[in-house]
Write a sequence for this structure.
């Protein structure tokens, strides 16, 4: 099946620093999604990307859908303590109209030191 | 508006026991999904249901069965639990159409001894 390689596995940063993480795939995905998961909770959608080359922001978060459709990155600017959590990239083969499930990366664990 | 709800929140089983994990959504979504999450891993798709009356296998379906009882409910059954099925199970739902995203429940933590 498809695999997503997400890096880094974990990040230890100071509050206020910018954060960057990315995902690559051996397969083409038509939709890329970024989720955040807090302890004991289900993943919550942060940003959805539907077009190759698309750059989308959500507050301090910015994500891009790679031109080759095989990669995506997520940036967080000026990190704050509540950004702590595990961030997952996810790819969907369908263009958004289909019901197929998501393929997830293994996650980036973000830890912020005040 | 509860979104996606899952029961139970926690469960401990002995090897060979059976149980059913329940999931319900109140958003009138067509598609529903079951994932499992293991330590250090992302979520992996077990089964999904594109619409009421249909179910399809995902990446890791072995050892599981599902039932789409109606549009609201999608259950996951373990007929004979094994320690390898110790995991956190997440249900999700999604509406039809481009731009619609999956909403996840809070998870069921299952320990098989």
């Amino acid at each position: 099946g498809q695999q997503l390689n997400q890096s880094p596995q974990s990040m230890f940063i100071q509050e206020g620093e910018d954060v960057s993480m990315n995902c690559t795939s051996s397969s083409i995905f038509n939709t890329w999604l970024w989720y955040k998961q807090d302890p004991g909770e289900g993943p919550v959608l942060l940003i959805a990307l539907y077009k190759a080359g698309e750059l989308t922001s959500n507050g301090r978060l910015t994500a891009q859908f790679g031109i080759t459709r095989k990669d995506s990155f997520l940036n967080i600017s000026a990190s704050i303590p509540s950004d702590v959590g595990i961030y997952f990239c996810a790819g969907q083969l369908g263009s958004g109209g289909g019901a197929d499930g998501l393929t997830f990366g293994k996650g980036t664990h973000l830890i912020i030191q005040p | 508006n509860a979104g996606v709800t899952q029961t139970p929140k926690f469960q401990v089983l002995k090897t060979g026991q059976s149980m059913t994990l329940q999931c319900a959504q109140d958003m009138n979504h067509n598609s529903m999904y079951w994932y499992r999450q293991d330590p250090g891993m992302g979520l992996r798709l077990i089964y999904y249901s594109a619409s009421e009356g249909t179910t399809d296998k995902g990446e890791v379906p072995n050892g599981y069965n599902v039932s789409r009882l109606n549009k609201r409910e999608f259950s996951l059954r373990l007929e004979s639990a094994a320690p390898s099925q110790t995991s956190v199970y997440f249900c999700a739902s999604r509406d039809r159409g481009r731009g619609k995203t999956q909403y996840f429940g809070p998870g069921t933590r299952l320990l098989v001894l």
